[in-house]
Design brief:
The chain has 13 helices and 2 strands; from the N terminus they run αβααααααααααααβ. It has about 375 residues and is mainly alpha-helical. Helix 3 crosses helix 7 and helix 4 packs antiparallel against helix 6.
Length: about 375
């Protein structure tokens, strides 16, 4: 009986709303996001943080810790974990990245044997190109741009005024959301569109579970993939298949961990820097790097993702790519990463409301019995 009540269509969207109101609302929402995209970004980021941390605060509440004190304890632990992870990974990653950028021109100039092999291959297939001249041109171009790139990295590391300001606002808003979590949940439950408090309470649980479970699974997956790639690059260096693999293993692993947060596109982007560096050494090194990434991604796709993610987070790749591009249009790189945890939330929201919302039909209703043609016998 309860299942029949839950799947019953409670909200019927009239035809005029389908034709006019919904498209108009979508256009207005898009313009609205473009006009105040930063405010929307701040509140969405704060809401995601609050959703992730709220179960921990509730756990402390069950242990008879006052909510305000629980929010303080959880947030201090959260910030300490972020700072600790940052201090552990970011300084060596930046050091290795700057070292790599500075050494690329000399690596390109020193790759004479690879250049000769590439020239032989080009001549064999009748490709009229002077590989040595092209590589020399690339090396000069890189040498000209490396100082500006290095200065840009230093500037990124020093000039954090705007980023720090936005981060502080996000932290403050998320703290308020955590403190007001009960009131916000009660408001959603009391004013749920279906008019059923049970529906509102169920949706709050579904929404929070979608975000929390996805973030936990994605962090675990990113750490596992980043550590695997870093260890694999170090191993290739130890057996002399990729000489620079060990030297830049931390950067390659951290880059892979970050890229892994981007579904479908991330694994491809993760392989680009190590493959490029390996190709400078030799095509054989690049081949071993590509093979290693293929093996790691096969393990990821057939073992790690089914175990860690399961099937509940599977979304059509086109929807994922559209969401990432839309997030990039609204808020740049930060918007792209923010759009990713919103995808499972949107999916669960659609699934939840699909059983509770119906559209008014467009086909004519069949003639009722007893109407004008009721007595006409069938042909």
């Amino acid at each position: 009986m309860e299942e029949a009540r839950t799947t019953e269509k409670r909200i019927i969207v009239p035809k005029w709303v389908q034709i006019a109101a919904i498209p108009a609302l979508l256009v207005v929402a898009w313009l609205f996001m473009g006009a105040i995209g930063e405010a929307i970004f701040i509140f969405l980021a704060a809401a995601l943080i609050a959703l992730v941390l709220n179960p921990l605060v509730r756990g402390l509440e069950r242990a008879r810790v006052p909510r305000a004190l629980g929010v303080f304890v959880v947030y201090v632990a959260f910030v300490a974990a972020l700072v600790g992870a940052g201090l552990l990974v970011i300084p060596p990653m930046i050091h290795q990245l700057r070292s790599l950028l500075n050494e690329i021109p000399s690596m390109v100039n020193g790759a004479q044997s690879s250049i000769e092999r590439l020239q032989t291959v080009a001549d064999r297939f009748g490709v009229r190109v002077d590989v040595a001249a092209k590589v020399d041109e690339l090396a000069r171009s890189l040498a000209a741009h490396i100082p500006s790139v290095s200065r840009g990295l230093v500037a990124i590391g020093v000039s954090f005024v705007r980023l720090v300001t936005i981060t502080i606002i996000i932290v403050v808003v998320s703290i308020y959301m955590l403190l007001q979590a009960r009131r916000i949940s009660r408001y959603v439950i009391d004013h749920f569109p279906t008019g059923e408090r049970d529906d509102g309470a169920q949706y709050v649980r579904v929404a929070q579970g979608a975000v929390v479970n996805y973030v936990k699974a994605q962090i675990l997956l990113s750490v596992a993939l980043g550590a695997s790639v870093g260890a694999a690059m170090w191993f290739l260096s130890a057996i002399h298949l990729f000489p620079s693999g060990g030297k830049y293993a931390v950067f390659f692993g951290a880059w892979t961990g970050v890229m892994e947060a981007i579904p479908y596109l991330g694994p491809v982007l993760a392989a680009v820097p190590p493959t490029f560096v390996a190709l400078i050494h030799s095509p054989l090194s690049a081949m071993w790097v590509v093979i290693t990434f293929i093996l790691i991604q096969q393990i990821e796709g057939h073992v790690l993702v089914p175990v860690i993610m399961g099937s509940r987070f599977r979304v059509n790749p086109l929807i994922v790519i559209f969401a990432i591009l839309a997030g990039g249009e609204i808020r740049g790189v930060a918007g792209m990463f923010l759009a990713i945890p919103l995808i499972p939330l949107a999916r669960e929201t659609i699934v939840f409301f699909r059983a509770r919302v119906g559209l008014e039909g467009w086909r004519r209703e069949p003639a009722q019995a007893g109407g004008a043609g009721a007595g006409t016998p069938p042909a």
